[in-house]
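Hey L., structure's done. Input below.
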Amino acid sequence: MSIRIFSLFFLVFISSVSLCSAQMMSVNGENVNLRSGPGTKYSVKWEYGQGFPLNVLERKSGWAKVSDFEKDTGWIHDSLLSKKKYVIVKVHRANKKKINIRSGPGTSNDVVGQAFYGVVFERLEKKSGWLKVRHETGLVGWIKQTLLWGSN
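Output:
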């Protein structure tokens, strides 16, 4: 009897751990559809571009249920996801202010560029609460991690 109870507890524990351990991935392609369900027959909710970071919540029949930095959820086919790490600027949506991209990890370093809310960067390195990133234009620099989403 006690072995059954332990087994049941273990299965419930493992199930809850797998539900809580979401995986960060990124979009692999341009004009990738986020759908309302796991299949091409479902309506398109959004369209994402290369590198857009997503949090995988669930998988079903070759499809991944994902959420983005604005908490929108939907389904993307597994073949359109990559483990390559990308991040997105998550601050200043309302006021359209820019964040600074610096030459090194710290505010004492020179500003080498700026970015608005929603700009996507490839994540290269992490150091002392800062991320070294690369934009598709080739710009490389450092951004404070708290200003970005997808940096787990």
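Residues 23-84 form a domain with the SH3 type barrels. fold (CATH 2.30.30.40). The chain has a mean pLDDT of 88.

-- N.
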